[in-house]
Amino acid sequence: TREVSPKFLSGPIGILDATSRVVQIGFMSLLFFVGFISVNLGIVNLLPIPIADGGQMLFFTLEKLRGKPLSLRKQVIIQQVSIVLLIGLFLYITVYDILRVI
């Protein structure tokens, strides 16, 4: 169904909880986990979300295809909408993190 359940998402609280569990396993597991988180952050940063690097690449690609950049007003609106959506997603994930930890 291509649906992602909130139980598979983690924010800072979930990552902190998972890190505390991984620390108990051993140092090599901790290094692997930190590397895993780092790679995931790099991938998310390249997604075409307007406030991330991938979003900037998307704006540059649109500029190249159109021959001119989007107006500053449109860029600001797109970025503001994406920030509101990301804040909503962060709050949603944080609520599930807190419920999962409790």
Radius of gyration: 18 Å
Question: Which percent range fits the helix content?
Answer: over 70%
Into which percentage range does the β-strand content fall?
under 5%
End-to-end Cα distance, whole Å, is 29 Å
Approximate shape: elongated
The major pleated sheet works out as: none
Mean pLDDT: 90
The total beta strand count reads: 0
**Structural class by SSE content:** mainly alpha
Which segments are poorly predicted (pLDDT under 50) over 5 or more consecutive residues? none
Number of helices: 4
Q: What sequence of helices (H) and strands (E) makes up the elements?
A: HHHH
Please explain how this structure is put together.
With 102 residues, this protein is mainly alpha-helical. Helices cover 75% and strands 0% of the residues. The protein has helices at 12-25, 27-45, 53-66, 72-101. Helix 1 (12-25) runs antiparallel to helix 2 and helix 1 crosses helix 4. The longest helix is centred in the C-terminal third of the chain and has 30 residues, at 72-101. The protein is elongated.
Summarize the structure.
The protein has 102 residues and is an all-alpha fold. It has helices spanning 12-25, 27-45, 53-66, 72-101.
Key structural traits:
102 residues; mainly alpha; 4 helices; 75% helix; elongated
Question: Secondary structure elements and their pairing?
Answer:
Layout: H1 12-25, H2 27-45, H3 53-66, H4 72-101
